[in-house]
Amino acid sequence: SSSSSSSIGLGAQTVVATDGITSRNLATLKRYATNWAVNRTISTQFKIVPGGQNNAGLVFYYTPAALNDGVEKYMLLHANVDAGTVALLRFNGASFVVEYSATFDASNFAFNLAQWHKLTVKPNTNLGFSGVSVQCELENLQTNDKVSFTTVVTNYGVPIGAAGLFTDRAYAYFNSISVE
User: Fold this and answer.
1) Structure pTM?
2) Closest CA to 118 of 89, 99, 144, 100
3) For residue 106, which phi and psi values (nearest 5 degrees)?
4) For the purposes of burial, counting CB atoms within 10 Å of the CB of 5, is it exposed (0-12), middle (13-18) or buried (19 or more)?
């Protein structure tokens, strides 16, 4: 087990949405296999910019097609403000599969597009061969409101993969990504 960590400060005005509101946007720190897919804490801070759909995400377990029998695969912790959900999604190469989804509204979480938020994911192999336990959290950094859940993913696969940032037809500022 390695105790190394990787973190990059992107600057408060960095826009990840390369094609903006017309496409799905994904950027990874590395494009090859890493040991970041399990037993790490991965987080990012983001602010959604109005003008498209209102969402942002944290990618982990990203495995490019060249390393995965021609199929790009990844896990995604996705905050969807329009739907009022934070969800753990698995991209299987063709579509998203919902592993778990939690709802939020004004009664339990203050999502404000003008404020910074944080997504954190902790995939752990403490279940042996039966699956990976994944802790997920969405936090408003100004109010400290949180929505969190833990779920088990049983079809996780080989625990390799990179981490990254995601939007789906949305603009967002990301000012950091951390893998510890």
Assistant:
1) 0.86
2) 144
3) -60, -20
4) exposed
